[in-house]
Amino acid sequence: SYDESVSINDSALLAVVTVTDGDGDTATNSTGIGDAVQFQDDGPTAGIVQGAPTVAHDETAGVQVDADDTTAAGVVALFAGVSNVSTDLSPSGYAQDASAVVSSTGSSFGADQEGGTTAFSLAVSAAGVDSGLDTTAGTSIFLFKEGDLVVGRIGGAAGAAAFAVAINSTTGVVSVAQYASIHHPTPGASHDETVNITDSALLAVVTVTDGDGDIATNSTGIGDAVQFQDDGPTAGIAQGTPTVAHDETAGVQGDAEDLVPPGERRR
């Protein structure tokens, strides 16, 4: 109600008329006109802009320096309330980039700026929207708003959590938890291939509230800023002590690994 009008108390402001006749006699009268003096409200404007920073978690175990992996207790605590967590990745992994993914550029409190607040939150484009990601086993992951978090669940609302996303309401910094490995489509040696949530499926929302409680909101897709880096196999080979010796002396020699040719009998 940004154009809401308020007025002076009607009886507090009076208009007075004074009538004076030709020989100086006067008469006066008055009426309240406070309700005729009105002030229309101003309202806030909500603006939100996605910046360049991304939040990448590498599903390889441990903290990978080429991603935003972290074991900080404060980040881990953000996801303490996530239920039915997949145990596919053990341990679970966490990531946070110190730079804000979004800013409130373009926002304004308007004339009623005293006591105004700006807050970021997360939303999904629709409950159960496809995240665009699948588990390594090929099951789709769907997004749900759960409290202050957005959780990606395997196969639907009752499925195990594959990942979760949080945003700092003051700074716009985004954090990620990963519980299940995610399918990366390129085979071969692409062990650090990156995939992300569908941009329009995951939303960052800004809510601007001015000093007298008027609210404006705006949102932008940030799915492309939440990224998951691939893990890859490790190939190991070691030579042991055994050898294979053939003695070229005719016949099967007992001091080598000679074999009897097919169709012949050992003598």
Our Rg estimate from Cα atoms comes to 35 Å
Question: Could you give the order of the helices and strands?
Answer: EEEEEEEHEEEEEEEEEEEE
- Number of helical segments? 1
Beta-strand residue fraction: 35-45%
Which structural class should the secondary elements be placed in? mainly beta
Main sheet, how many strands, which sense, barrel?
A: 7 strands, antiparallel
Shape: rod-shaped
Which strand order do you get reading across the main beta sheet? 7-8-15-14-13-12-11
Mean pLDDT rating: 90
Distance between the termini: 106 Å
The helical percent reads under 10%
Unreliable runs? none
Total strands: the figure is: 19
Describe this structure in words.
The chain is mostly beta strands and 267 residues long. Helices cover 2% and strands 36% of the residues. The protein has one helix and 19 strands. The chain has one helix spanning 73-78, and strands at residues 5-7, 14-20, 26-32, 38-40, 49-50, 55-58, 69-70, 93-96, 102-103, 117-124, 129-134, 140-146, 149-154, 161-167, 174-178, 194-196, 202-209, 215-221, 226-229. The strands form six sheets. A seven-stranded antiparallel sheet has the order 7-8-15-14-13-12-11. Strand 17 (202-209) and strand 18 form a beta hairpin. The relative contact order is 0.19.
